[in-house]
Write a structure and sequence with these properties.
The complex is a heterodimer of chains A (about 100) and B (about 400). Chain A is an alpha+beta fold. Helix content of chain A is about 25%, strand content about 10%. Chain A has a domain at about 35-100: 2-Layer Sandwich (Alpha-Beta Plaits). Chain A contains five helices and three strands. The chains are: A alpha+beta (about 100), B alpha/beta (about 400). Strand 1 (about 10-15) of chain A pairs antiparallel with strand 9 (about 205) of chain B. Bound molecules: iron/sulfur cluster (2 copies).
Chain lengths: ~100, ~400
């Protein structure tokens, strides 16, 4: 008591990946970027990055090519919806695991 | 300075003296003259604050939550259905640990519509985590408002100062207006240890999961359950803080001394009537009459309702043979909330149940039904010599 110990007595965080906990565990669909359709990846130059801009969990990097941090990606699909070239597909985690892990 | 004014003006002057920076309120009878007075004072430049006229009570408290998060001393006021409309934000302000002060001019809640006094509005907010103080006269309204800010800022818990609609809000009484200099000595400016700052953005009251987890810094952060426990722990500790603040107030202003419960002629009392708000002082007259008839009876006014001063209540009632709890509110389907709380305190603090007093719950003044001193006297007299006719709702005509 005596001071408003915010860090201690309320939930309080800085904006950034992981702000909402281990949100990667919520995901049922995984955004997978097809680099043959992704403009910055194809041109080797900065372009739309709508995925980076719209991701509510701040887990898409503004890099060439853009990368997704699956530890925190919650699978909402906003990036896939916003991508102007339809380069991002939402793949069921079960299907993805069958394909990748055999 | 001594003045003669209404209870609403007493509250407004307390808010002005406290140096409140943001007022957000929506008018509702019988609170309206309080917010009108504040808007007048701000408009006239007598109070250096922002008045935010909002479209609802929910927004009024939301504005105070925002202002308080940004480090401003914030105030709102309401009554009845306005308070109920705020309810979600009432919980939020407490969980967010914001030191907001709110005056409640107590009024009955609908349906049916009724604008007169009882305590159902604030009693219905009992479980939100706010501190609740009930003032019994105009002096207490202005003093309690000042103390409320120091209490809220010391504990990081919002405080409700409740006073009876019309009976106190609209009646004129003489009271002392504290001097600004002394108020500043008692209540230093609000310096939050943390406030919203656009140059270093942060999220407040972010989602918590059922289990604890590491935060963005990689440190283990409290979960919902821990944060809620800390509120409960600090509320329980706040009983003592209320006493300390009252002592500090008394030292500067020479008034106070019974911040938890106010006993009147309880020392040798075999029977005690318990009440809250202005009813308490009306009961003083009643027991004077009963005393002249030879009944050893006293009055206990509960001034702090949440956190409940259970130890002080039980200590004041220890040795009594019987207790009458007179309430202007009900937990519908059972009994008055104060009556239940009081019984619980007796159960905890008087181990030998054969020595515990009987407790009789009574209801009075619901929806502003006039509480006649003669009716109170007759009811209590019948309780002392025999039994009170059921259902124990004083003045009801079925
Ligand atoms: S929005 Fe689509 S095309 Fe643009 S960077 Fe992201 S994935 Fe590539
Ligand atoms: S699905 Fe896309 S937008 Fe949604 S969290 Fe994952 S990366 Fe971000």
């Amino acid at each position: 008591m005596g001071t408003r110990g915010y860090r201690y007595k309320t939930s309080h965080s800085l904006p950034g990946p992981g702000d909402g906990g281990n949100t990667g565990s919520w995901r049922v669909q995984r955004p997978v970027i097809d680099l043959t359709r992704c403009t910055p990846a194809k041109r080797g130059a900065e372009a739309c990055f709508a995925c980076w801009l719209y991701c509510p969990d701040v887990v898409v990097s503004r890099t060439i090519p853009p990368e997704i941090d699956y530890k925190y990606c919650k699978g909402c699909g906003i990036c896939a919806e916003e991508c102007p070239t339809k380069a991002i597909a939402m793949v069921d985690e079960s299907v993805y695991h069958e394909h990748v892990e055999g | 300075m001594h003045i003669i004014e209404t209870g609403n003006v007493a509250a407004a002057l307390g808010v002005k003296l406290a140096g409140v920076q943001v007022v957000a309120a929506y008018p509702i009878t019988p609170q309206t003259p309080l917010t009108e007075k504040l808007s007048e004072l701000i408009e006239a430049g007598e109070m250096d604050a922002r008045y935010v006229p909002v479209e609802s009570e929910h927004s009024a408290l939301a504005v105070c939550i925002g202002a308080s998060s940004a480090g401003a001393r914030s105030f709102t006021a309401t009554s009845a259905n306005g308070l109920l409309y705020m309810h979600e934000q009432v919980h939020w302000a407490a969980g967010a640990r914001l030191p907001i002060v709110m005056c409640v001019a107590n009024r009955a809640v609908g349906a049916p519509w009724n604008i007169w006094n009882d305590h159902q509005d604030s009693i219905s907010q009992r479980d939100t985590g706010w501190i609740q103080i009930y003032s019994c006269d105009h002096q207490q309204i202005i003093d309690d408002t000042l103390k409320a800010f120091r209490l809220a800022e010391t504990t990081s818990i919002p405080v409700m100062v409740c006073y009876d609609g019309y009976l106190l809000s609209h009646t004129y009484m003489p009271f002392e207006v504290p001097e600004q200099e002394k108020v500043e000595q008692f209540l230093p400016p609000f310096h939050p240890s943390y406030a919203l700052d656009p140059s270093s953005p942060a999220n407040l009251n972010t989602v918590t999961l059922p289990e604890i987890r590491t935060d963005v810094h990689g440190e283990m952060a409290h979960g919902y359950m821990e944060i809620r426990y800390l509120l409960q722990e600090d509320l329980r500790k706040a009983v003592q803080v209320v006493e300390e603040i009252d002592a500090a107030f008394q030292e500067i202003f020479g008034r106070g001394g019974a911040p938890l419960v106010e006993p009147y002629r309880c020392d040798d009392a075999e029977y005690v009537v318990v009440g809250m708000g202005s009813l308490t002082y009306q009961l003083w007259d009643v027991i004077e009459t009963l005393r002249t008839e030879g009944h050893k009876i006293g009055v206990l006014g509960v001034r702090l309702y949440r956190p409940f001063p259970d130890a002080a209540v039980a200590a004041a009632l220890r040795g009594a043979r019987g207790v009458f709890v007179m309430e202007k509110a009900l937990s519908y389907g059972y009994e008055g909330a104060l009556c239940s709380d009081l019984k619980s305190a007796l159960y905890d603090h008087i181990p030998d149940k054969s020595r515990a007093p009987f407790v009789k719950g009574l209801v009075a003044g619901i929806g502003g039904r006039e509480i006649r001193t003669a009716d109170l006297t007759d009811t209590l007299r019948s309780g002392l010599v025999g039994s009170i006719p059921e259902p124990g709702w004083i003045g009801i005509q079925l």
